[in-house]
Design a protein that fits this description.
- With about 80 residues, this protein is α+β, with helices and mostly antiparallel strands.
- About 45% of the residues lie in helices and about 25% in strands.
- It has three helices and three strands.
- Strands 1-2-3 form a three-stranded mixed beta sheet.
Length: about 80
């Protein structure tokens, strides 16, 4: 599995989201920017992503996963600060 595979896997579950991913081997960083995260705590957002990839982790396709789950507003604010 590579970063593009992970994006392709997640996109149907977050159809309107911006999804970015990078990997080194089977260690991944993923950013999901989606309106569905509004009103949710960070841990709830991460749990939503983990629930989808648990099988990939169990199979060994993903060894480590760093998740950044943002609302569109949070993403815009990050972009403005750069």
């Amino acid at each position: 599995m590579n970063a593009e595979d992970l994006i392709t896997f997640l996109q149907p579950h977050f159809p309107d989201a911006l999804i970015q991913a990078a990997n080194q081997g089977n260690k991944f960083d993923v950013r999901v920017v989606d309106i569905s995260f509004e009103g949710k705590r960070q841990v709830q957002r991460q749990q939503a992503v983990y629930a989808l990839v648990n099988e990939l982790i169990a199979r060994g396709d993903i060894h480590a996963l760093n998740i950044q789950a943002l609302t569109p507003e949070e993403w815009q604010q990050m972009q403005a600060e750069q």
